[in-house]
Inverse folding.
């Protein structure tokens, strides 16, 4: 493994943390997690559609999708018609659908809801994000990076670490490649500098690798992630986003059918292009992508052909090591909380899964409590 | 020295050199020119510190000019840009450095401060009090100016802020190896050190975004960031390149090496730098690990 994996120990307390990491970490050095935020509150019911459910059919008078329209995935469920690519990933076993994810008493305000998911401490007023805390606790140079065109979300806010915000992979290259650099100096700062410049050179090299992605913001962000993974910079977690700043494009209070289809098609095409690109270079086994949105939508359609802010919704996990398929039961449409689905799986169990089972990072210090990982990633 | 860390530093003949003068100016200003470094070298430490700690004659006029630029309705980002303007142009850099220290020390954050006028008012309060007596822990000042608190601090108890600043800056501890290049420059310090030395023109709005990309989001408090990682090292190099692209004329090699590096780098590095000039020399120095240190 190259120098990017090596520790840059900056302060005594990190030796202690380093020892804790070494003790708990399985051999996951090359594992990469991508966290994809879907801003606005994605309608889980029209994403993973219970097309045979009478309650669904009655409540969604114009937005209802039928069995003839959806991509069937078993269990009387189907993906939205626009999700052709993700349906293929599901059939190939590279996509898991974690159903009924949320947290107790889910908040239905965009900002508070997003803050809850991003801090992993619902309603606690926490100022650091869960990924920012990973960066603060890590001994690695750049464990977390945000890729996108919006200001860095709270999820990557940290106290000590500098979490990069990258617009494109070129940001990680040097405008003026160094004409000289003495790499013989043994101290950590010289090593770090040598590692940084070597990484910038590799990044410049991977910019030339051809790949086919749609001209969509989220697709281009995922392309950047793939490029930075190829450049082997040692980044463990990337955050990307679709939907922009609050309230976000998934917030469909009116005319949902058209708008939601476009958003899901963009998501599906982008995610598929990303997985295909990684698979081409046999990198898909190194990467797990997770989606999240601040809440789902109400079961009942409103008078403007849209839906209101809801609660539980599905989370997708994609990747070569993901145990594909449906995980957990579809939440009941008869036992609702103010017209919204009740969660049965805490989103922090999903976070614990990607942190511990996938990345080998102890989750409890990051999440502030013990959450059991789900059995959704192959060892 | 070990027994008298807070006694005034009185260098023997030849001990007051470029390294020492550069160390003082790096810590007590945001950046310095070749002439300012030579002046400090000629004056010696105590006279230089006297000058750094005293308000120059044109300071009040400068402050009046800046106050006229403050907007009531704009955002905290505008306040940050105004603050950057101050840091770049102030004739009294130690005062502004002390203001920055207090901003980090108190780390007050409030939605009210989102308005430029409120943030500017808050910074003005800090600025007013920055060099006045008030309760501050010696540890905080020592950590700020020296970087380590490994010295006994007992004799610093009971000093007010002004006495503390003065005592610490003038001390044996400040000029000891335990302090020399033992801190990492913040992105702001990196940028202003470089720009001042080569007379690069800085645009506050642009600089504000560039510093944010390197992790320093003014006017937020940025107390204990770990500034250097593999991304920010690349980012610093690119920031230097963008600044240097606008510089038409460079000092000669000797003046650049003195001002930017005080000629203090491993011999093999200095030997290779001796082959370079102008923009290429400055960019290469900006990329050196030694230049990242304060």
């Amino acid at each position: 493994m190259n120098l990017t994996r090596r520790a840059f120990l900056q302060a005594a307390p990190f030796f202690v943390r380093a020892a804790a990491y070494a003790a708990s970490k399985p051999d996951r050095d090359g594992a990469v997690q991508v966290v994809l935020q879907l801003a606005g509150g994605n309608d889980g019911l029209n994403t993973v559609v219970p097309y045979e459910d009478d309650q669904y059919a009655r409540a969604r008078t114009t937005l209802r999708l039928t069995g003839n329209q959806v991509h069937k995935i078993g269990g009387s469920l189907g993906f939205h018609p626009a999700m052709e690519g993700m349906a293929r990933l599901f059939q190939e076993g590279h996509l898991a659908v974690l159903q009924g994810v949320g947290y107790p008493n889910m908040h239905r305000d965009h900002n508070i809801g997003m803050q809850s998911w991003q801090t992993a401490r619902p309603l606690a007023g926490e100022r650091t994000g869960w990924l920012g805390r990973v960066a603060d606790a890590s001994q690695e140079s750049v464990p977390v990076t945000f890729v996108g065109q919006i200001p860095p979300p709270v999820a990557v806010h940290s106290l000590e670490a500098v979490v990069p915000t990258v617009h494109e992979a070129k940001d990680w290259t040097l405008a003026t490649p160094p004409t000289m650099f003495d790499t013989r100096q043994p101290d950590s700062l010289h090593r770090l500098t040598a590692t940084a410049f070597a990484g910038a050179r590799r990044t410049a090299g991977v910019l030339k690798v051809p790949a086919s992605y749609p001209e969509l913001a989220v697709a281009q962000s995922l392309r950047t992630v793939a490029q930075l993974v190829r450049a082997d910079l040692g980044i463990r977690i990337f955050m990307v986003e679709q939907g922009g700043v609050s309230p976000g494009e998934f917030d469909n209070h009116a005319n949902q059918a058209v708008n939601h289809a476009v958003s899901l098609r963009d998501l599906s095409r982008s995610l598929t292009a990303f997985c295909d690109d990684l698979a081409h270079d046999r990198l898909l086994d190194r990467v797990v992508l997770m989606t999240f949105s601040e809440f789902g939508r109400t079961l009942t359609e409103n008078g403007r052909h849209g839906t209101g802010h809801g609660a539980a919704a599905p989370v997708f996990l994609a990747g070569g090591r993901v145990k594909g398929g449906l995980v957990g039961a579809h939440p009941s449409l008869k036992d609702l909380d103010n017209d919204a689905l009740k969660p049965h799986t805490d989103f922090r169990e999903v976070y614990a899964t990607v942190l511990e089972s996938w990345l080998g990072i102890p989750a409890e210090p990051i999440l502030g409590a013990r959450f059991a990982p789900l059995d959704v990633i192959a060892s | 020295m070990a027994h008298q860390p807070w006694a005034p530093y009185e260098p023997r003949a030849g001990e007051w050199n470029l390294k020492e003068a550069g160390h003082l100016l790096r810590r007590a200003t945001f950046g310095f020119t070749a002439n300012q470094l030579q002046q400090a070298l000629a004056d010696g430490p105590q006279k230089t510190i006297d000058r750094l700690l005293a308000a120059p004659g044109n300071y009040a006029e400068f402050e009046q000019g800046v106050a006229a630029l403050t907007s009531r309705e704009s955002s905290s980002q505008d306040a940050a840009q105004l603050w950057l303007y101050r840091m770049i142009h102030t004739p009294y850099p130690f005062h502004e450095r002390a203001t920055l220290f207090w901003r980090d020390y108190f780390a007050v954050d409030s939605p009210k401060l989102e308005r430029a006028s409120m943030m500017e008012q808050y910074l003005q309060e800090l600025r007013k009090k920055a060099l006045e007596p008030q309760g501050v822990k010696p540890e905080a000042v020592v950590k700020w100016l020296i970087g380590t608190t490994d010295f006994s601090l007992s004799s610093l108890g009971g000093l007010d802020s002004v006495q503390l600043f003065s005592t610490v800056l003038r001390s044996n501890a400040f000029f000891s190896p335990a302090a020399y290049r033992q801190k990492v420059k913040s992105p702001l310090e990196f940028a202003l050190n470089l720009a001042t030395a080569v007379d690069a023109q800085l645009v506050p709005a642009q600089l504000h975004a560039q510093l944010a990309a390197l992790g320093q989001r003014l006017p937020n408090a940025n107390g204990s960031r770990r500034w250097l990682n593999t991304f920010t090292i690349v980012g610093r190099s690119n920031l230097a390149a963008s600044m240097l692209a606008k510089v038409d004329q460079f000092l000669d090699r000797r003046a650049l090496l003195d001002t930017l590096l005080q000629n203090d780098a491993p011999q093999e590095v200095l030997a290779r730098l001796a082959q370079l000039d102008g923009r290429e020399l400055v960019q290469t120095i900006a990329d050196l690990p030694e230049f990242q240190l304060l």
In short: The mean pLDDT of chain A is 91.
